[in-house]
Amino acid sequence: MNVGIIGAGTMGSGIAQVASTAGCTVKLFDLNQSALDKAKAALEKILTRLIEKGRVDADEKTRIQSNISYVNTLKELSDSNVTIEAIVENIEVKKNVFIELERYVSEDCIIASNTSSLSIASIAASLQKPERCVGIHFFNPAPLMKLVEVVPAIQTSKEVLEKAKQTLLDWKKVVAVAKDTPGFIVNRVARPFYGESLRIYEEGIADFATIDYSLKTIGKFRMGPFELMDFIGNDVNYTVTETVFTAFYFDPRYKPSFTQKRFAEAGYLGRKSGKGFYDYS
Ligand code: NAD
Questions:
Q1: Is the bond into 143 cis (omega within 30 degrees of 0)?
Q2: Is the Cβ–Cβ distance between 87 and 118 less than 8 Å?
């Protein structure tokens, strides 16, 4: 199977690894050459670590790496059977990419988006063949997180939904089908989790580390909310909250936080920028 991935950032590079590990031929596209270089270097590091842990051997590493090519133009994805878009969480930017992509790919190519919060129906509406569009929502880090939400839009054909589900099962993922609603399942539940943690901090009840410690030790979460927001990226996480809040007609349960907004504006994005709620330098 030929898989085209659009966007070589956190999610796109992880999804490329998942598909190439499953034996697919992958083309990873990004406008930004440094993102492609970074994705390639990150994969080398990850696979070297997996060899040290005895999880893959040298042949497997070579196979996974040689299955992926890093490309600079969208046109190079023309032979894809499935494309998965993982670029910036902005509906207009995504739509423009999808309109261009549809000019190059075959009639039966599935066009999927990894959006966390945008309407799949609205993305699908930008296509000539909206029935080929579906949400395929991986979690971060994509190679480790088993769950993938598959989100059919009202336009999505049954055949495309089934093909998307089967592809993910072939990639050893667990699939949950969710309706096309803001945040789907996991990101909707997660909004009040982050939001209430930020409000606890804003009200001076406890600092980041204390809130994280409490939820990890008592709540048995793997990561505390501030560690998780830093891991996801405060820019991405804030935008998703704002989108879900707006899409639910300003329901206060999903209200974004000024604290996180300021962190995102200041460039304190979390791990990827070296500083967020915690310091990673
Ligand atoms: P990111 O910022 O790490 O990467 C985005 C990449 O897209 C960048 O490399 C950028 O150069 C590239 N890009 C931007 N516009 C482009 C264009 N027009 N054409 C080609 N490439 C372009 O973002 P991310 O965290 O990987 O998120 C990507 C998508 O996945 C978003 O829709 C986000 O909501 C969703 N998502 C993110 C997470 C997460 O935890 N970060 C989890 C699930 C879903």
A1: no
A2: no
pLDDT digits (tens, 9 = 90+) for 37-52: 999 999 999 999 999 9
For 153-164, write each residue's pLDDT tens digit.
999 999 999 999
Query: 180 in ligand 1 pocket by Cβ < 6 Å?
Result: no
Q: What is the mean pLDDT of residues 196-225?
A: 96
Quote the pTM value: 0.92
Give the chain's radius of gyration (CA, Å).
19
Mean pLDDT of 271-278: 96
Q: Which whole number is the average pLDDT over 231-244?
A: 93
Reduce the DSSP state of residue 264 to 3 states and report it. Answer: helix
Name which residue sits closest to atom 31 of ligand 1, judged by CA: 89
Distance from C-alpha of 62 to C-alpha of 251, rounded to nearest angstrom? 49
Q: φ and ψ at 33, to 5 degrees?
A: -60, -35
Q: Looking up tokens 């590091």, which residue turns up?
A: 45
For 187-273, give the CATH class. Answer: mainly alpha
Residues assigned a catalytic role? 116, 137, 149, 187
Q: Tell me if ipTM is over 0.90.
A: yes
8 Å CB contact between 40 and 169: no
Domain boundaries, the chain: 2-177, 187-273
Tokens of 30: 């990004």
How many whole angstroms from 54 Cα to the centroid of ligand 1? 31
How far is the centre of ligand 1, averaged over its atoms, from the C-alpha of 29 (Å)?
Answer: 11
The third-level CATH classification (topology) of the domain covering 2-177 is Rossmann fold (3.40.50)
Give me the pLDDT at residue 117, please. 84
Q: What is the whole-number distance in angstroms between the Cα of residue 86 and the centre of ligand 1?
A: 5
Q: Sign of dihedral through CA atoms 248, 249, 255, 256?
A: positive
**Angle (nearest 5°) at CA 62 between 65 and 40:** 30
Coil, strand, or helix at residue 149? strand
